[in-house]
Specification:
306 residues, alpha/beta, five-stranded parallel beta sheet, four-stranded parallel beta sheet, 15% strand, globular, binds phosphoric acid mono(formamide)ester
């Protein structure tokens, strides 16, 4: 039995296979419509979510399976003091696979250690968000046609943004990747990402503050919101929240093929006027998230569709 805690739980070869499967699902949805008949997915969300929870649920339903779960800690027995370990033991009696989001880093890992069903980390605190990374990789490969030789700008809250941490971890394994890390001083990537991931893998990167300086050289811009829920005080959040706003004027500085991705939800960091730009790919990215999660569910349940 396998779990997914980090993108590194999948080798590059396995990632490629998973993306091939996701692309086949996209092209031939009917072929997979009964692949999970009789299977159940539990979504255990101790933190708010729109995309991740609903796309997991849509993914399982598209495969013919059913779903159950909770969407907040308040509506589960966590509010009475039940531990994550006890909850997963209980849920293992009801479901075949589980996606868990939790504000505490490592909570899905704790669950996986006692679970008798595969556990998928659907976001743990400011740590990792591996299924967003599968979504991002699939979007990049499908729309750019390659995963290598890319200059990638990551912009916004690089300190607390778990999608950024997971994406860097995954992308350092491809050839010719260069990162431009665009953030205010206070929201730079954590030291472990800079030292243990980027420097350790000898991946070139620059850290800059101005988005305008980076835009002309990017193949891909990954915007992120400032993670309000991870700040210790409101004053710091208010000071940081509108530090970057990508608008039409800034998009004119970028190349004609630069893709704009965003894990969403968006707050103010991408002006709505950018949505009409053909380079804006963040809503297509959401659709790729469903295919990626369908492929992941099939992979972790060991279901092959001929
Ligand atoms: N991208 C993402 O994780 O969105 P949700 O918080 O809505 O799940």
């Amino acid at each position: 039995m396998r779990h997914l805690m980090s993108p590194l739980d999948l080798s590059v070869e396995e990632l490629d296979q998973l993306m091939d499967l996701a692309n086949d699902i996209e092209k031939n949805p009917a072929k997979y419509a009964h692949a999970c008949d009789g299977k159940r997915l539990a979504t255990l969300f101790y933190e708010p979510s729109t995309r991740t929870r609903l796309s997991f649920e849509a993914a399982m339903m598209n495969l013919g399976g059913t779903v159950l779960g909770f969407s907040s800690a308040d509506s589960s027995s966590a509010s009475k003091g039940e531990s994550v370990s006890d909850t997963i033991r209980v849920v293992s009696c009801f479901a075949d696979i589980c996606a868990m989001r939790h504000p505490k880093e490592g909570a899905p890992m704790v669950a996986s250690m006692v679970s008798s069903i595969p556990v998928i980390n659907a976001g743990d605190g400011g740590h990792q968000h591996p299924t967003q990374t599968l979504t991002d990789l699939l979007t990049i490969r499908s729309l750019k046609g390659r995963m290598d030789h890319l200059t990638i700008g990551l912009c916004g809250d690089l300190k607390f943004g778990r999608t950024v941490h997971s994406l860097i971890n995954a992308l350092v394994r491809y050839t010719g990747i260069k990162f431009i890390l665009i953030s205010p001083e206070e929201l730079r990537v954590p030291d472990y990402i800079r030292d243990d991931v980027l420097r350790a893998n000898q991946v070139p990167f620059e850290e800059v503050i101005k988005l305008e300086d980076a835009l002309p050289s990017l193949d891909l811009l990954y915007m992120t919101r400032v993670q309000k829920e991870r700040f210790f005080n409101e004053e710091d959040y208010v000071r940081m929240k509108d530090f970057y706003i990508l608008d039409k004027a800034k998009m004119e500085l970028a190349g004609p093929d630069m893709l704009v991705l965003h894990p969403l939800p968006r707050v103010n960091e991408i002006a709505v006027e950018v949505d009409q730009d053909p380079r804006a790919a963040y809503f297509k990215q959401v659709q790729y998230g469903v295919y990626a999660r369908m492929a992941l569910i099939l992979t972790l349940l060991g279901i092959e569709v001929k």
